[in-house]
């Protein structure tokens, strides 16, 4: 049965930062990567791509985490909405527009020039949503690098995860340092200035997620940040906006086990109650999707950790979720797995 009091909001957008070689695995080909968020939205809404010309897979063939999120939704039946936070390509999923354009390269002095306006529109929308609990998720290739940029501008820990098995942290730090230089910033210069931090170092998805969270919290709605270090960064933005309300972060065991990400410390330092859910994919390690997740690809994204947490809360066993992952994988790829 659907929990009408819980609303799952997927915030989808793009940043030119994703085009930097070696930054993201969110697409088999850089030219097709721009379609990934649009396809993710369709998989969440319909269970398969309907307009997007691709099935989002990594270069090695690992499918998008949207497969897992949709699988959990098919067992829990939670309501969802997609927020267009700067999509680069059209999607067939119904969307709410917060006036965001795709983000520029983090090397630019202002990759999100209208961060303040995006945040304000999202804040109003978050305050008006008819839900007792808002679950916020993201899909944006390159988003962990822009998240690192925002964390640096805020003066927070610069630890982020990666969609790749080996986290290219040195590359990300080099990119962020160049971005700070281009914006005339030193680490911590924008502490307490969350929209400026996003304007100069972030992406439109972060501006939107933070705005939605602030608006919802101010309206008395419970907020669950569904994701890893990108959503923890959104939590840091909420804290730098001056809100001290209870805020939860739900992520996967894959992110929690990634020492390079250090999501536990990032959550603790920003007073985010952390929930970690293990989908038990090792019980189905013969399945290509679950084997790829176990190998360290696509550790999080499209609210995978939050969706798994919702399934766990609803008493849906992870064995049922794994069965649903197999069903959705077959539907999305058009081929049955072993």
UniProtKB/TrEMBL annotation:
The keyword Glycosyltransferase applies. InterPro entries: Nict_dMeBzImd_PRibTrfase, Nict_dMeBzImd_PRibTrfase_arc, Nict_dMeBzImd_PRibTrfase_sf. It comes from the Archaea. Signal peptide: none annotated. GO terms for molecular function: nicotinate-nucleotide-dimethylbenzimidazole phosphoribosyltransferase activity. Keywords: Glycosyltransferase, Transferase. The keyword Ribonucleoprotein does not apply. PANTHER family: PTHR38811, UPF0284 PROTEIN SLL1500 (PTHR38811:SF1). Belongs to the UPF0284 family. This is UPF0284 protein ABSL23_14405.
């Amino acid at each position: 049965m659907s929990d009408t009091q819980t609303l799952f909001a997927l915030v989808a957008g793009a940043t030119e930062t994703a085009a930097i070689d070696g930054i993201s695995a969110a697409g088999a080909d850089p030219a097709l990567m721009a379609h990934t968020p649009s396809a993710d939205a369709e998989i969440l809404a319909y269970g398969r791509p309907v307009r997007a010309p691709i099935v989002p897979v990594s270069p090695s063939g690992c499918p998008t985490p949207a497969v897992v999120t949709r699988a959990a939704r098919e067992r829990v039946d939670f309501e969802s909405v997609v927020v267009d936070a700067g999509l680069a390509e059209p999607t067939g999923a119904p969307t709410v527009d917060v006036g965001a354009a795709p983000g520029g390269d983090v090397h630019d002095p202002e990759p999100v020039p209208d961060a303040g306006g995006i945040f304000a529109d999202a804040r109003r929308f978050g305050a008006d949503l008819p839900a007792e609990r808002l679950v916020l998720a993201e899909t944006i290739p390159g988003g962990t690098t822009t998240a690192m940029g925002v964390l640096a501008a805020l003066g927070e820990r610069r630890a982020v995860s990666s969609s790749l098995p080996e986290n290219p942290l040195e590359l990300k730090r080099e990119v962020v340092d160049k971005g700070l230089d281009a914006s005339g910033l030193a680490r911590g210069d924008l502490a307490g200035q969350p929209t400026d931090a996003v304007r100069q170092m972030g992406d439109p998805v972060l501006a939107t997620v933070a705005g939605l969270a602030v608006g919802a919290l101010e309206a008395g709605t419970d907020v669950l940040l569904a994701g890893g270090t990108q959503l923890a960064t959104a939590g840091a933005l909420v804290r730098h906006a001056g809100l001290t309300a209870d805020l939860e972060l739900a992520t996967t065991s894959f992110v929690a086990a990634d020492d390079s990400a250090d999501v536990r410390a990032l959550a603790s330092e920003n007073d985010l109650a952390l929930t970690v859910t293990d989908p038990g994919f090792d019980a189905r390690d013969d399945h290509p999707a679950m084997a790829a997740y176990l190998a360290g690809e696509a550790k999080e994204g499209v609210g995978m950790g939050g969706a798994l947490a919702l399934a766990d809360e609803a008493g849906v066993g992870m064995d049922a979720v794994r069965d649903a992952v197999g069903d959705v994988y077959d539907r999305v790829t058009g081929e049955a797995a072993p």
